[in-house]
Amino acid sequence: MGDRSQPVSAENLSPALLGRLPSEVRKPAYDRTALRPGIAHIGVGAFHRCHQAEYTDDLLAKDFDRWGLVGINIRPPLLADTLGRQDGLYTRLIRQNDEVEARIVGSIMRVVDSQDNAAPALDVLASPEIEMVTMTVTEKGYCHIPSSGALDLDHPDIVHDLANPQTPRSVPGILARALELRMATHGRPVTLLSCDNVPTNGTILGNVVRTFAERRGGKLADWIEANVAFPSAMVDRIAPAPTAADIDTVEQRFGYRDGAVVVGERFRQWVIENRFAGRVPRWDLVGASFVDDVTPFEHLKMRVLNGAQTTLSYLGVLGGFEHTFEAIADPLLADFVRRMLTEETLPTLMPVPGISPTAYVEQSLSRLTNTAIRHRNHQIATDGSQKIVQRLLNPIRDRLAKGGGIELLSVPVASWMAYLIKASARFGRAWQVSDPFAERIATIADRIGSNSKLLADAILGIDAVFDPSLAANAMFRAHVVADLDGLLSNDPIGFVRQVCSG
Ligand code: CS2
């Protein structure tokens, strides 16, 4: 530790460097040269490296088996230049305010770039030794309609893939093609495990792949029924997109360079539905839970933790805060989120074995105060149209069904609208947004101007996001209109203060 401030040389992370790293950096506790591929993962971003790959690293250390990971990217960034150069090795930093803990994860044995051409991905996914395919492809990767969960047959990538099934671009198209190749060659069963924050993620993945296969015709749909499992899973760990500052932290503190470093909080959780095809990595030996029904865990996590993040992200941007930890440091926003979760979200949850919901709310809010996790509000705000159903609209629907009030939960829904409206030309484009519905909402805003009622009416009419029966609910509409009006004013935070005091 003595030479921390003066790194001897900023050598890049590599297998050869492992033996020379400072002792405080934890290293893989198994023989990496004995790894054999058993798991393929699609979407090797920060979350995967902080979550499934770390659990697998734990498993390999505890009970070594043929569960090496092959990491595939079908979207940018390229993996070859970062993880590829480092033989799959990377540093996972845990940061909790001032504490920094470093660990090298060794479970990724190979990376495959398949961004412009699905063939390299298909080679891996169809190979007989792969028995588990996990994925973090973001909410929109499933090409489903958020409000219904059905495959979006008008999605340009789905239209393309149905016309060109051997050269697919979409996740459903690539998986269906891989399964077809498996059926035609060795016929071995496989589990496809979604690790995205999509509600009933296994069911939706199963829907989109099956629908795609049915459209293709032939025997594929029947083969899938008999040989493929789509368990649902709840995944949790806050792991924002890494920055150049994280690379510098590794260099300054530990004396080497790592272009693939990831930073996460200490908390992690993985609850997986116990429904598999073929052999399964025993992640349950290292902290994951295999359960019969993931739904209560999924509702708890998406409605509380993710619901809080989404709320803080939109109100945070409107209030001028850059990161989650800054938004929640504002007593007004913290109070608003706590009240929303406690008064309106908690009553919609099912009992969760072993977890006290109120303690979970406090734990979640406290996780968000971690100043070392620099999670940008704009990052969380991205693709809100794909997130608000499970985080906000489903609890609102449940609340309305029980005759409960929704005056707090409606605020983040309106704040998602305000976030997109304020990014339109009409409002001078104060920030860049990324959401599949951004253009549609910008067009609405440009056409309608600033009449909140007309704006809300038009946006609530987007039935891919708002289920028509929810959009028709008078109480919901009235709240969204009033909230949007307040949030589009010059003082959105003043409006939140008013909601809190009312
Ligand atoms: C975040 C999630 O960007 C987002 O949508 O809300 O990535 C969140 O940090 C994770 O779900 C935490 O497990």
From TrEMBL:
Presence of keyword Iron: no
InterPro entries: 6-PGluconate_DH-like_C_sf (IPR008927), 6PGD_dom2 (IPR013328), Mannitol_DH (IPR000669), Mannitol_DH/Oxidoreductase (IPR050988), Mannitol_DH_C (IPR013118), Mannitol_DH_CS (IPR023027), Mannitol_DH_N (IPR013131), NAD(P)-bd_dom_sf (IPR036291)
Transmembrane segments: none
Keyword terms of this UniProt record: NAD, Oxidoreductase
Biological processes, Gene Ontology terms: mannitol metabolic process
Taxonomic classification: Bacteria, Pseudomonadati, Pseudomonadota, Alphaproteobacteria, Hyphomicrobiales
Keyword Zinc assigned: no
Domain named Mannitol dehydrogenase N-terminal: residues: 38-284
Location of the Mannitol dehydrogenase C-terminal domain: 293-486
Pfam families: Mannitol_dh, Mannitol_dh_C
Species of provenance: Mesorhizobium atlanticum
One example GO MF annotation: oxidoreductase activity, acting on the CH-OH group of donors, NAD or NADP as acceptor
Protein's name according to its UniProt entry: Mannitol dehydrogenase family protein
